[in-house]
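Section 5: illustrative case.
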């Protein structure tokens, strides 16, 4: 009897309905504010909820009650649409002033082709005699299930794997880029996006292993596949909550459109200054840090330092990378760490907490301070203080 609310269907139904709530919230916010990231995340959740809905109605007895249902024609694997959506979502969050343009539609070419194909075979089968008396028509059985689904199984896995690889590469490229631009990166590291990618990767690996086992070793029925659906529904809800309440528009007003000549410096060349700038330019940058203490500004970024130096961002970035052998982030934070050490020698920890001193030196978060200090000194701030006292 449909609907059958049981231990299989009820958890999925509750989670899917909650996921759909966040689909509505994200798409509504996109309509109001026109943030492309909201639209893309809303579509990601919509696809995963659609996939889970198909399984949920199955556990609720739909297929038993409606023996001639044609839902199999529309049980389309979402990977072909989900993979490019994930990639474009991360791109929209990590790219300043991202705009969805015509070229981005090509990412969905394969997904649109599959949708058109499914509607095509449905239309053909629907015109055949006796179609309303059966669940699947002749093309669904003799073409789709016999050949096409097997072929798609070989396409979807590498397709998803390729897009996940590109997306991780995009994300870590962004992480490296902000170190060339910002001195305090904690609020811009977008750890939520990393969690988002890891969760989808786990689902992908789980689903791939399940498909291999189900096709080659043993038959996995609906109940054995339920766990993946439950995990997917939980992940969908988590992503909906985090994605809606996390500000992913931090870069919308920033401009990364500069091209420093040197982004990474080979170790052998760290002490070899580039000849494309004058020695006095390097000394000028050093003076801004040593004398004017520009590093004390917690929001200091490459643009700010370039304005102070009356140079372009590209020039300042090249001087820091080539002349000092560091990226902008390490260059500024080394000054902050040295200032912190100097304040400890002056016994400032008697009046302020370690975090308070760090903030006086230009750090704006405990996480950034602890990580940077450990990286540059091999000690935690507390360990360093104890070593100085002893």
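Designed sequence:
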């Amino acid at each position: 009897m449909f609907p059958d609310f049981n231990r299989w269907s009820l958890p999925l139904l509750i989670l899917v309905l909650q996921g759909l709530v966040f689909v509505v919230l994200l798409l509504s916010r996109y309509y109001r504010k026109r943030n492309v990231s909201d639209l893309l995340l809303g579509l990601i959740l919509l696809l995963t909820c659609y996939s889970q809905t198909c399984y949920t109605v199955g556990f609720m007895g739909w297929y038993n009650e409606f023996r001639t249902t044609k839902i199999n024609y529309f049980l389309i694997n979402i990977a072909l649409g989900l993979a490019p959506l994930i990639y474009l979502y991360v791109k929209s969050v990590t790219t300043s002033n991202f705009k969805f343009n015509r070229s981005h539609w090509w990412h969905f070419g394969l997904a649109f082709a599959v949708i058109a194909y499914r509607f095509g075979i449905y239309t053909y089968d629907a015109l055949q005699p006796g179609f309303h008396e059966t669940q699947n028509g002749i093309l669904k059985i003799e073409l789709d299930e016999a050949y096409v689904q097997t072929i798609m199984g070989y396409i979807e896995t590498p397709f998803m794997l390729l897009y996940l690889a590109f997306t991780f590469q995009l994300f870590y490229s962004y992480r490296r880029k902000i170190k060339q631009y910002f001195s305090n990166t904690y609020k811009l590291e977008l750890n939520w996006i990393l969690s988002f990618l890891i969760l989808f990767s786990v689902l992908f690996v789980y689903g791939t292993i399940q498909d291999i086992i189900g096709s080659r070793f043993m038959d996995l029925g609906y109940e054995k596949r339920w766990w993946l659906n439950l995990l997917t529904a939980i992940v969908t809800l988590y992503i909906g909550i985090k994605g809606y309440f996390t500000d992913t528009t931090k870069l919308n007003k920033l401009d990364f459109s500069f091209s420093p000549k040197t982004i990474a410096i080979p170790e052998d060349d760290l002490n070899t200054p580039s000849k494309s700038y004058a020695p006095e330019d390097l000394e000028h940058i050093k003076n801004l840090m040593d004398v004017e203490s520009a590093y004390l500004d917690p929001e200091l970024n490459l643009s700010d330092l370039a304005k102070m130096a009356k140079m372009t961002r590209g020039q300042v970035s090249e001087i820091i990378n080539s002349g000092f052998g560091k990226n902008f982030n390490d260059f500024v934070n080394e000054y902050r760490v040295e200032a912190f050490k100097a304040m400890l020698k002056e016994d400032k920890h008697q009046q302020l907490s370690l975090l308070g001193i760090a903030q006086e030196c230009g750090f704006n978060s405990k996480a950034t301070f602890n990580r940077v200090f450990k990286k540059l000194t091999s000690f935690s701030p507390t360990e360093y203080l104890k070593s100085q006292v002893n």
